[in-house]
Amino acid sequence: MREAHQCDWFTIGYGGRRGPRCSRWADAEFARMWVCAQHLKAIADAVRSASSGGRGDVPAIRAAARAGLREFQEHERSRAEQERQERRWDPDGPSVVYYLRRGDGLIKIGFSARLHERKLTLQREHGPLELLATHWGDRRTESEIHDRFREVRATGEWFRPSPELLRWISRVNRNQQRNAA
Fold first, then answer.
1. Are residues 121 and 147 in the same domain?
2. Which of 77-91, 98-112, 134-148 has the lowest mean pLDDT?
3. Helix or strand holding residue 38 (H, E)
């Protein structure tokens, strides 16, 4: 079992004098300094602000200096890399082929292991999108569907809503509903 430590953060009172110690339990240690999640975030924000030319929060910068700025920055890089690894698409993981319609009626046929994130990304570029259907599939499945509807391809992965494509999407939805039941 991990030993519990109190946060080493002290508030800075009027005139720069040390105020009371934080009453929360520490979540992390940096160079012999234990800090809670709130003060860890304050240190991170101060370092980011200072490194981008801002003045930053003086107590947080002092704490970061005390904690060892280099060690803290290395921890931040390591945490960011871990988050990138977690968000990375797993080619062996479950993915879906999706059909999204944008405002001008064009339909995007794509695939993703993280459909929600993919839709948000596309919406930033194309505006509101309507999810028409999804089914299990991978890059090869997506490519086969692109080939099937190549006659109505508008550009890239965007297709004109032909009667054949709309029937296909209806069939996909019926199959999904049947499989869900």
1. yes
2. 77-91
3. helix 37-51
